[in-house]
Amino acid sequence: MKKFIIAEICVVLALIVGFWLGRITGPNTSYENYYDNADKAWTATQTIDNPPITLDEPDQNRLRKVRAAYREVFDKYPDSLWADDAIYQLASRIPRTDEEAFALFRRLINNYPDSEWADDSMYAIAFASYQIAEQLKKTGTLESVEAYYDRALALYNQLTAIYPGSELSDQAEFNKAMCYYGKGELNLALAQFDALREPFSDSPLLYQILYVTGEIYLRKQDYESARVEFTNVVDSGDPDLSPLASFGIPQTHLAEGEYQEAIDGYQRVIDLYPDTKVGQDAYFYMGWAYERLGKYDEAIARLEEAIDLYPRNENAANSQIYIGQIAYANNDMASAIDAYQKVADNSTYDYDNRRQAQYWVGKIHEDGSDTDSAVDAYQKLITEFPEPHKEATHPSNNINENYIQNLRSAGL
């Protein structure tokens, strides 16, 4: 009995000691210091994130630490003053993936709807969706394009309804119209922009509205209305949009078949904005306008000048091909072959342009009954450009060893 009592006392003592030892050594689960600890965690995060880190940070260990520190703030202290700030900093600056950023932005919107970052987060998802749609359209991947535009539209509508006083409201209204424009719903976009003119009369967005309205009229082939809008933007002197609008004016003349007016307009762009992208583009378009007038020598001279001045301009490869087409149409086969070969041999040009140019070198030789030169050109085609042209029906895709062998046999 005595032994039993002693054992019982020992158990009780062990429990007491264990309890106090646990209180001393175990994690502090008291909420007494919750907000102080949250402040300390936020201060520590700001310290290691100074200077502010970016996704290009070479020190990946530091990047991981900063990410973990922000996550600790909003995971451990979700009811603190800093939780929404931590989520926004992680989502907007250093997410591991776009999907993670979207998830964090949605978490902020849902859990902290009154946060100063809630409208920014909603705008960020909407704008990213719009950008994805634009990128898919450029790459020719049309699947889901409309879905991304619609997602952006829904979020912009939500933002302007829930946060009408937001600094982003005006931009969201403008971006709604841009979504309609991106979807090709030109009448809806035009109506949206027209509705914004008066309320945005003192807004920095006004001249963007006028410029895009001009672009819409150009696409609708209402050239006179397009010129009116572009001229208003040019007259505004806006440093970013005036050059673009100035270039838009001769574009309307070119589309309307008024080639001399287009040439004069392109020359004004070159004179006024020589160091801009549109100043470069105007050189190329002027050459194309001369070709439409039937002034082939002037067209070739202008295009060659443009290529020499701006060899990396996106229009350079097409212009060199155009020179070949002009020469070919005028039965100057030597010049046509030379122009096409320059494209094929230029490693800075895109693959399909180079491939098709090499094909035309061979085709011209073949049509001219120069079998040996045609065989050499076609052999170069299948050796240096083994991947097919992205257009499945492009004639270059018909050239193979069997075709070359048959050509040799026919030439004997």
Describe this structure in words.
- The chain is mostly helical and 412 residues long.
- It has 20 helices and no strands.
- Among the domains are: 36-116; 314-412, Serine Threonine Protein Phosphatase 5, Tetratricopeptide repeat.
- The protein has helices spanning 2-25, 34-48, 60-76, 83-93, 98-111, 118-138, 145-162, 169-183, 186-197, 206-219, 223-236, 241-256, 259-272, 277-292, 296-309, 316-329, 333-344, 351-367, 371-384, 401-411.
- The longest helix is centred in the first third of the chain and has 24 residues, at 2-25.
- Mean pLDDT is 91; it is low at 23-27.
Write a short abstract of this structure.
Mean pLDDT is 91; it is low at 23-27. The radius of gyration is 33 Å and the shape is globular.
Tell me the helix content. over 70%
The coarse silhouette is globular
Proportion of β residues? Answer: under 5%
Number of helical regions? 20
CATH class of one domain, named Mainly Alpha
Give the topology string: H per helix, E per strand.
HHHHHHHHHHHHHHHHHHHH
User: Mean pLDDT score, rounded?
Assistant: 91
Radius of gyration: 33 Å
Tell how many strands the DSSP assignment holds. 0
The class by helix and strand makeup works out as mainly alpha
Q: Which fold name is given in CATH as the topology of one domain? A: Serine Threonine Protein Phosphatase 5, Tetratricopeptide repeat
How far is the first residue's CA from the last residue's CA? 121 Å
Largest sheet: none
What would you say the CATH architecture of one domain is? Alpha Horseshoe
CATH superfamily of one domain, by name, is: Tetratricopeptide repeat domain
Assembly type of the chains comes to: single chain
Poorly predicted runs of 5 or more residues: 23-27
